[in-house]
Amino acid sequence: MILATTDGIPGKSYDLLGLVKGSMVQSKHIGKDIMAGFKTVIGGEIKGYTEMMNEAREMATKRMIAEAEALGADAVVATRYSSSSIMQGCAEVIAFGTAVKFKQ
């Protein structure tokens, strides 16, 4: 599956299949959340949250790809990510784009 953040793929002609998306709501356990709270006092990267967001993006991407594959897509163009906080220590990540099928 080709994923592109551009609105098209140079040299390729394709039909639009429609919007595809995948989302993931992820949280870390209370111990990591407490440690993250301490880290905000002294500053620096909060590695537990970085890992959490990376895991959520990876899963959201896999779910978006699965939705595109179910439509028979060859690629997803205009791929974007968005995230939002659901509650403290818990975030949603959504991956979305347009599924396309290459013309032969």
Helix content: 25-40%
**CATH architecture descriptor:** 2-Layer Sandwich
Strand-residue proportion: 35-45%
Largest sheet: 4 strands, mixed
Question: What is the number of domains?
Answer: 1
- The N- to C-terminal Cα distance equals 16 Å
Number of helices: 2
Please state the overall shape, judged from the principal axes of the Cα atoms: elongated
Biggest β-sheet: strands ordered side by side in the sheet = 1-3-4-2
**Rg on CA atoms, Å:** 17 Å
CATH homology-level superfamily: Hypothetical protein apc22750. Chain B
The average pLDDT score comes to 86
Classified by CATH, the class is Alpha Beta
Structural class: alpha+beta
Number of strands: 4
Tag the structure with descriptive keywords.
104 residues, alpha+beta, Translation Initiation Factor IF3, four-stranded mixed beta sheet
Describe the structure.
A hairpin with a 2-residue loop joins β3 (75-87) and β4. The mean pLDDT is 86. By secondary structure, the chain is an alpha+beta fold. The two termini are 16 Å apart. The protein has helices at 30-42, 47-70; strands at residues 2-3, 14-27, 75-87, 90-102. Strands 1-3-4-2 form a four-stranded mixed β-sheet.
Write the layout of secondary structure elements.
Blueprint: E1 2-3, E2 14-27, H1 30-42, H2 47-70, E3 75-87, E4 90-102
Parallel strand pairs: 1-3
Antiparallel strand pairs: 2-4, 3-4
In short:
The chain is an alpha+beta fold. It has one domain (2-102): 2-Layer Sandwich (Translation Initiation Factor IF3).
